[in-house]
Amino acid sequence: MKKNILIGVFALIIFTVVSSCGKFLDVVPDNVATIKNAFTMRNQAEKYLFTCYSYMPKDGNIGIDPAMLGGDEIWMLQNYGGTFFNMAKGLQNVVSPYGDNWTALFEAIRDCNTFLENIDKVHDIDESERLRWISEVKFLKAYYHFYMVRMYGPIPMMKVNLPVDANIDEVKVYRDPVDSCFSYITQLIDEAMINLPLTIDNPMQQLGRISQPIAMSFKAEVLVYAASPLFNGNTDQAGLKDNKGTQLFNQTYSKEKWDSAAVACKRAIDICQSVGMKLYVYPKRYMQFNLTDTIAIQLSIRNSLCERWNSEIIWANSQSYCGIQGSALPALDPAQPQNFVPRGDYSPPLKIAEMFYSNNGVPINEDITWDYSGRYNLSIAGYSDRLYIRNGYTSASMNFKREPRFYADLGFDGGIWYGQGRYDDKNDLGLFYVQAKYKQPNAVAVDRSTVTGYFMKKVINFENVIGAATAYSTAQYPWPIMRLSGLYLMYAEALNESAGPGPEVYNYINLVRQRAGLKSVESSWTNYSSNPTKYTTQDGLRSIIHQERLIELVFEGQRFWDLRRWKEATTVLNAPIKGWDGNQEVAEAYYRPILLFNQTFGEKEYFWPIRDGNLTTNTNLVQNIGW
Amino acid sequence: MHLKPYEYMKKTNTQFRVNKMPMCINKLLLTMKISTLLLVIGMMSIFSPSSYARTKSPDIKTASIGTVLENITQQQRVRITGKVTDKAGLGLVGVTVFVKGTSRGGITDVNGNYSIPINPDDKTLVFSFIGMIKKEVTIGAQKAISVVLEAESTTLDEVVVVAFGTQKKTDLVGSVTSIKMSDLKVPSSNLTTALAGRVAGIIAYQRSGEPGQDNADFFIRGVTTFGYKTSPLILIDGMELTTQDLARLQPDDISSFSIMKDATSTALYGARGANGVILVTTKQGKVGKASLSFRIENSLSAPTRNVELTDPVTYMKMSNEAILTRNPLGIVLYSDEKIANTAAGLNPTAYPANDWKKLMFRDNTTVQRMNLNVSGGGGVARYFISGSYTKDNGIMKVDKRNNFNNNINLKSYTLRSNVTIDVTKSTEMIVRLSGNFDDYQGPITGGADMYRRVMRSNPVLFPSYYPIDEQHKYTEHILFGNYDVGQYINPYADMTKGYKDYSSSLMLAQIEVKQDLSALAKGLSFRTMVNTNRKSYFDVSRNYNPYFYKLASYDPLLGIYGLEAINDATGTEYLGYSEGPKTISSTFYLESMLNYSNTFKKKHNISGLLVYMLRDQLNANAGDLQQSLPFRNLGLSGRTTYAYDNRFFAEFNFGYNGSERFYQTKRFGFFPSAGLAWSISNEKFFEPIKKVVTNLRLRTTYGLIGNDAIGTASDRFFYLSNVNMNDPTNLATFGRDPGGYTLNGISISRYANQEITWETSIQKNIALEVGLFNKINIQAEYYTQDRENILMTRASIPVTMGFEAPIRANLGSATGNGVDLSVDYSEIFHNGLSLSVRGNFTYATSKYKVYEEPQYKEKYRSRVGNSIYQQYGYIAEKLFVDDVEALNSPKQNFGVYGGGDIKYLDVNKDGQITTADMVPIGNPTLPEITYGFGFSAGYKSFDCSAFFQGLANESFWIDPSATSPFASYRYPNEVISGTLQNQVLQAYADSYWSEDRQNINALWPRLSPTINSNNAQTSTWFMRDGTFLRLKQVEMGYTLPKKLQDKMRTSNFRIFVNATNLLSFSKFKLWDVEMGGNGLGYPIQKVFNVGLTVNFN
Fold it and tell me: For residue A24, which residues of chain B lie inside 8 Å, CB to CB?
């Protein structure tokens, strides 16, 4: 009996234990999120759409956008490191390339492809919205490809996603020749155009989403790049062939590329104007103050960048609000010496200051009325200079008699800095001005402030105010990727290349000059230039357009790319970086240009190196020349 | 009145007052600086846990041990005499002879003679001597009893705890090592620090000396996987616990400590045992009167070696040089005037020169430990109850102006109760309850962080605090120093501004039922065990925001200075409060086991075992949905053994395990293993030499073991993708105004793969056991481990595929082999001297067999054939002599470099230094060799021992970024605001490249105010040899003579002094070499310790 009870108890225990464990290891409940969940309902799919947007490189961000600090527009204290400053110092490398986007943007493209593959599965979405989303993602896919072509030259076009278990040979893709790249990118934009909205009807929620003017302007830019010397018959790249022998750069110049670029630019301008875009002009009143023309023109120039979504913004990157308004601003307010939020770190070198025109709208070395050789001599500001340079202040001659964009875009020792809490331009002695000599409030210090003597005024909204301690109120703005003035100049450039000088070309340059307070190309050169007929030749006009573009779009992340696509970087970026002697207390000593850095730019630096690890993984990729 | 002290105490409702102990004890205790309060608290915590705190009621009657002892009655006795000899007839000195059941007796003299008084009712005499078999002799009518004692065989009949049971050591087939508890009693509150060099087969080292953070890392037979779990499975009384729980275990509570190393010995644990198993069982009560024992220790600890920093004046000079040597136009930080005045030692307020280490850290600190246990039992139930208390103090100074303690004060308590009950004649029930509790108070960011902060604090910008001056005479806060806008680190302020409390606890409950089923079949038994544990942790920080001041003016003539408040808007005089993480987890475990063992025809020994286990763990703070799901294991394992005539042994094991991490069809794995052993010395033909070779045995095993702890711990379900449907890192925002319309994005952190399954380890073991003269034992084992199906990231997938998460597969394979060797020798000499010498040696290597990687042009880049812990780096040739040489050398792709920077070797001769020039450098970072050796000796009442331990075949790197002078360095994932400026190691100040002294072999390259990324590459320049040998422990003890002990009714009354980490031998001098690359952290401590152990009978 006892034996039986024991057996019974034992059997019971075994049974309980074993029977309870059939499903023991199935711990995962149903409905754990998988990628399918992203494409069942509209609201989830919208998040995937946003995911595709989220990869947009943050333009204007000093640590992400190579065009800010990677060239020669901005210099910093030597002890600053950082990704792109190192690149500017010639330290680009193949082991861990600065600003390498190869990984992130291919990820972005995979997400775009995933979106395009699956968006049909969403059942509760309006068909027109579905088509719009598809167009936006196609556009983004084109944009991400273009961003990489601009950096790396020819890249593999990832038109569709390869499956997770694709075999090794399949995943070892080849770089596509540049022409194929550009044609695939334009094809995507063309496909996208159809279903994009002409205007954003819900600006409070949707400004920044892709519209037809954006797509068309972007297509124009892509075609301009394709037509530019870097990509159009660039024989320096003749040696770039992959292991199948494919030539990755076309070797013959094609004028037709400029023709189609000019057509695309014109179409883009037409679309933009049809929705009411126009060059931004500041109204002459600010609060109770009636502003002078001088200040109003400067504000037109400054606000065309800094006022968010103003009338000439074609495309601003709402993923990237300008983040350097603090560190670019010098500590202007003598009442707040303890506030180190305004640091004045980013310093345009002398060559940028010299790039701006004279007050007659021509280059300072061409202006027959302007003392170019005496530009480093001293002058004392008089009453007529009072809104440019503080009355009575001694400064270098080259800071006098310059075009309005010089004063709107740059701060310098003695220069008036309109705004930042002081708005009455009738009271010129009440306005802020910069004092940047040694031991002065904005002087170079161990860990901050300008190293060249110049400041980036352009990117700072004039309404930002420095407060006590760490307070700094900023008017935020998304970084513009394309402005109408840039598009005008691109059209002028394409048209000059395709058809040569003519009234249509002058017209679009003059529109930009007019807003900047300058006379027309024709009258300025004819009356003031030592080379009065320069604008009548294709070469002369090309150099005028190039300089106009560099001035108009200074600090906007364009110069870096433009110099490359024009193949002018080997000249321009091999010039030394200079600044005023920041270790001097008196004007005589301070206003001497000193060498800060001998910048060098080699042929190979037109393109980024492909990280050597990526070449080891995929032996079908060929490294860019020189790396 | 034969009452034991505590019984007496109970009866008379009195409490112990240690200060009333007899003078001899009292003096001992005093000289040992043992806090009386501690003892009282400890005692009371056992007897009346609820009222120990601060109660010191004057009403309680006090009695003293003296009174107790005087109550012991003396009775009339007759004497009995005799001689004790060994087999050879020589008299044995110091043999204990006593009357069974009492403590009366004596010891033999130099000739082996004894004479003791006995009572008429005494029946049996017991003769015992270390190393000899205890002998009992019935007295009867004899007046003279002479006995011959036989030497104890050191291996025979010794029982070893193995998986789910015990085996005689002579029957073992698998590779199991057990450790003697006496070896683990080190003066540390952390048991894991005792493991290194004690057991053949364990690789162990300790990287930090910070109380609470000082667990040693240990691995059984090295590491042959590249998954996340490399540490062995730790089982305490069958419960799977963590290293931290092992660290808090008291050696006094441990009854056995076994290390299982090969396939057959770990097979039963199936999925969990692939990295080896550490199995600990705690003591259980034995039938008998209650016996109480306690151990109390007090230690003094101090860093073995401190990192030396250079003096402030050199610091400033080098800082200026660092700036100018990189940028001649640079602006230096320190004027010549400041340097000169600091050097002249002018006003320290105006010209501060801080030795932050001295300001913040003491030279040494103290630790108190005590442990007390009671065990005993009667026919129906036995009990073992223990409690322990340790108090570790950190080495930080405390500012007296604060009324709180910011030094580390880690109190650990454990309480354990093991009760065995005979429910019926055939049913035994064991209930084990235990708890570990840590209460910590210390600096807000921890001790190691204080050391790291000091390393990054400027020594000359400001003093730690300003003295109160006339202007601030009503100020109630400390005037902490700072500079500029207060962005610099003032480590003194960081240390003294507040404190953190943390409390962690582990509660365990276990019930085990053993049912003898011999009624069903002879030798059949059933056992089931259920246990659960709950862990919890929380922390709370309290601190004020320090007020910082800076020097506003200074008049050098009058020596008058003025202070300016930097942060009077944000400073506080009152404490703020912040809560840290609270983590909770619970585990449930069940195992049921059917056991069978029988002997047939006296020669055939057969046993079988079938065990079913199930484990379920849940974490409260999982972080995401997949992590929040329970962790589960399920397994069925079995073992059969067969032994023939004590000569041949065979064993077969299997584990059939399931893991929730894999897809249904891949979920279960079957892992068999088998082994054979042959006791050659038990063969007849061996008889002739058995006197010399007392034991000769061969063992071999082969088997498969699974491992589901692959990938990373957060990879819960490989067959599911892990999608974050709301990921803020992928957000996008639109609209006219900032922040307009924002949606988070969708991201994937794992792609689904239903094919991923178990990693398997194929383990082979061959062992040879040799015993010589019954005195020397040698065990040599050779093993190989082949890991197959190791999960790894597919390296052949180019990034153009655009995957957000790595694509992985069971592709990798690695192998390891090595040798465990142990030798021990013990002998008792006739003059009473006992001596044992032992040593062990572990050699464990690993290498990649299959590792998916790109097809490198350079063969040396492939990891295949290299150790898993092999580092890759550049070969540093020397420092560049000058910029010209740098320009004319192959281009180095790591940022700016020139004269005085490190020149790397262009291995593949392609004209530039790229990742293709990285070669395997140095030894693995996991030491391949661990060894230890030592002796212990006893003579009469004295004993002493010493133990050396060493590591070899290990490389580590000085972190060139963390030590880069003047650079601002943040540790990975560290959140610390402000300006950081590395200090300068004295060694660097003594040897660096400068434009004046272009020493191309200097320790540190050309100075730089920032981290020079060219020099910060992993290279041979900063590689160091981790080899060391250290005197891990020395101990001397004195046991009170038996006579005295008998009077006090104690046994094993022993006082001892010992020390750890006294000496070390290594080529590396910057810090304690055992800390490896972590040298800037909390230093490893050397400890001097005095202690007392007492058993009351």
Answer: 614, 632, 634, 658
